Amino acid sequence: MPAPSPNQVITVSELTRRLKAQLENTFPAVWIEGEISNLRVAESGHAYFTLKDANAQLSAVAFRGVAGRLGFKLADGMAVVAFGEISVYEKRGQYQLIVTQLLPKGLGALQLAFEQLKRKLAAEGLFETSRKKPLPVLPQRIGIVTSPAGAAIRDFLNIIGRRYPNLHIIINPVRVQGTGAAEEIAAAVDQFNTLNLVDVIIVTRGGGSLEDLWAFNEEIVARAIARSAIPTISAVGHEIDFTIADFVADLRAPTPSAAAELVVKSKGEFLDDLAQFQSRLNKDLRLQISEARRRLADCVLRHPVELIRQYRQQVDDLSHRLAMSPDAMLSRWQDRFATDTGQFNSVFARYRQDIRQRLAHAQSKLDLLSPKATLARGYSITRLADGGRLVRRTRDVATGAKVTTIVLDGEFDSVVSSPPKIKD
Amino acid sequence: MKPRRKTADAAGNPEGLTFEHAIQQLEKIVADMEAAELPLDDVLKNYERGTRLVRFCGQKLDEAEKKIELLTKKADGSVKLEPFEPVEPEDENEGKLF
Q1: Average pLDDT of A146-175?
Q2: pLDDT value of position A67
Q3: Which of A49, A197, A297, A413 is deepest in the core (most CB within 10 A)?
Q4: Torsion angle of alpha carbons A277, A282, A288, A293, nearest 10°?
Q5: Is the dihedral of CA A204, A209, A210, A215 positive or negative?
Q6: Is A84 within 8 Å of A99 (Cβ atoms)?
Q7: How many domains does chain B fold into?
Q8: E strands, A281-409, where?
Q9: pLDDT (tens digit per residue) in A84-121
Q10: Which residues of A touch B47 (CB under 8 A)?
C-alpha cells in the first residue's frame, strides 16, 4: 500500500464533516422497518432505541413530542415501521435515525398507506385551517355526492326535511366503495364545480370498515376536494371514522345526519334570529324617543335670559319634526314581528301630543313677549330720527331732538319740546 | 344550467341583496341604534330600514322551492336533472323492528 502524501491526509473532523453531509443529504426522509431493542425512555421523555434486523442495526431516537403521541406502547422486540431522517452526531462519531413517525408493523398496508398519504398532503399544506372556506349562510342549492341507494342520503334528507324543508338539493350519484369509486367521487366534485351548479357540496357515505371507506382516503378524492372552489363538507362513516377527505374538506361532519345539521341552520332558528332583530329595533326606537323627550324637557328649563331664542328655535324644530314623522311611517311599521305595535302607537301618539302642547305653549309665550302684543296694549316705541337708536331712558334724548314714534299700525315724527323729566 | 345568483351591491334597496348581506346590514343597523346618540331623524330612518330588512330576510327564507333532484348523464355527455325518489331500504337489517 503506498504511503499517503502529506496533502492527502485529512482530519477526523474533516472526514466526519464530509460523512455527515453525504449521509444527511442522501437520507433526509426515509421509511424503514425493523425491530426495537435496547429501548430506554429518559426522564425527559425522549425514547432511545436500536432498530435492528438479522444483519444490521441502527441507533434511533424519538424525541418526547413524537414519543408521547404514539397511540401505542413501545417495547423491545416490537416490529415497527419508522419515518425519519438520518443524522450524524460528530462528537461521538455516530449516525442515528431521528424518528418523526412510528407505527406498529402489523398494522397493515392500508393503514400505512393512510399514514403516508396523510403526511404527504399535510406537508403540502392541504389540511391547513387557513385554507378552509366558510359555508354560505343560506345556501340556494346544496349538492350531494353519494350513493343514491344508501342510508346516508336517506338519513340526510330525513333530517333536512324536518329542519328546513324548502331547499333545493341536487344529488350527484356515485359508487362509494370498490374499484373506480374514488374516480367517480372526484369526478362528481369536479362536475359540480365546472357546472357551477350549487353553493355547497357534501361528500358522504354511511359507516363501514376501513376497506369500505377506502375510496375517501384516496389521493384523487383529496385533490378534487382541495381544488373545489365551492365549499365542501365531508361526512364519511361514523363519528370515530376519520378519512383523508375529512381532513381536506372545509368542514368535517361526523355523520351524514350531522351534515344535515351543519350545512344550514334550521328555519326555526333563522326566524328566531329575525324576531330578535325586530325586538331590538323596537326597543331602541322606544328608548331613543323617550331620550329625545327628556332632552326637550331639559331644554325648556334653561336660563331665563335665553328663553326667547330657545322658544323660537324650538318652535321651528318641533314644527319640523311634527311635519315629517308619525302617521305615514307608522302604518308602514306594521309587520308580523312588531308584536308591540299597539304599545308603540300609543307611545308615539303621546309624543305627538306632547310636541303639540309644547308648540302651542311656545307660540303663546312668543306672542306675549313679542313687541306686537305690547304695542297693541297702547305702548309705543321711540327711536332717534338720526341713527335710529332706541330711546329707553330720559338721558337718550335732549330738548329739540328729532324722534320717530312707532305705534301698532305705523309711525310719526316729533321733536322733544321740553327737558325730559326723570320719574321717581 | 342556471348560474349562481350574483351578489348585487344595493345601497338603499334590499331587494338586490343576498340573505347573508342583509343580515350583516341588519346587525350594523342594530349596533348603530344601540350605541350612538343619533338624531331622531336617523333613528327613525334606521328603524324603517331595519324593519324592511327583517321582512326581506323572512321572505328570502320562504323563497326556495322544495326540490330534490338527481343529476344524470345523457348519452351525448351533457347532464340533466330529474326528480329524485329515495330508494326504500333493501338491507334486511334496515327498516325492520324485529
Answers
A1: 95
A2: 86
A3: A49
A4: 180
A5: negative
A6: yes
A7: 1
A8: 381-384, 402-407
A9: 999 999 999 999 999 999 988 866 777 878 888 999 99
A10: 281, 284-285, 333
Residues in chain B closer than 8 A to A152 (CB atoms): none
The rounded mean pLDDT for chain A is 87
**Structural domain of B43:** 14-63
Burial of A49 (0-12, 13-18, 19+ CB in 10 A): buried
Using DSSP's 3-state secondary structure scheme, residue B76 falls into coil
- Which CATH number applies to A10-107? 2.40.50.140
Q: What is the pLDDT of residue B43?
A: 85
Give how far the C-alpha of residue A410 lies from the chain's centroid of Cα atoms, to the nearest Å: 74
Show the cell assigned to A182: 374514488
Instruction: Identify which of B46, B64, B84 has the shortest CB distance to residue A171.
Output: B84
Report whether pLDDT(B64) > 80: yes
| B23, part of any domain | yes
A286 vs A48, A198, A344, A357, B11, CA distance in Å?
73, 43, 8, 20, 26
A137-265 has which fold? Rossmann fold (3.40.50)
Q: Is residue B24 part of a domain?
A: yes
Name every residue whose Cβ is closer than 8 Å to that of residue A364 and which is 6 or more positions away in sequence.
none
The DSSP annotation for A26-64 comes to: H-SSEEEEEEEEEEEE-TTS-EEEEEE-SS-EEEEEE-H
pLDDT at B5: 44
B95 belongs to a structural domain = no
> Contact A195/B30, CB-based, under 8 Å?
no
Name, in order, each residue with C-beta under 8 angstroms of A91's C-beta and a sequence gap of 6 or more: none
Q: In terms of CA atoms, which chain A residue is nearest residue B29? A: A281
* Closest of A153, A150, A225, A145 to residue A184, by C-alpha: A145
* Cβ pair A218, A203 in contact under 8 A: no
A chain contacts of residue B21, beta-carbon cutoff 8 Å? none
Task: Identify each DSSP E strand in A132-231 by its residue range.
Answer: 141-146, 168-173, 200-205
This prediction has a pTM of 0.60
In the prediction, which pLDDT does A335 show? 46
- For residue A306, what pLDDT band results from cuts at 50, 70 and 90? low
pLDDT > 90 fraction of chain A, expressed in percent and rounded: 58
Q: Please give the Cα distance from A74 to A376 (Å, whole number).
A: 112
* Identity at A327, one-letter amino acid code: D
Q: Which residues of B touch A271 (CB under 8 A)?
A: 58, 61
For residue A8, how many other CB atoms are within 10 A of its CB? Answer: 8
Q: Is A197 helix (H, G, I), strand (E, B) or coil?
A: coil
**Phi, psi angles (nearest 5°) of residue A131:** -80, -20
Residue B80 lies in a domain: no
Cell reading at A228: 373545489
For the stretch A181-212, pLDDT in tens is 999 999 999 999 999 999 999 999 999 988 89
pLDDT for residue B7: 41
Of B18, B70, B79, the CB nearest to A195: B79
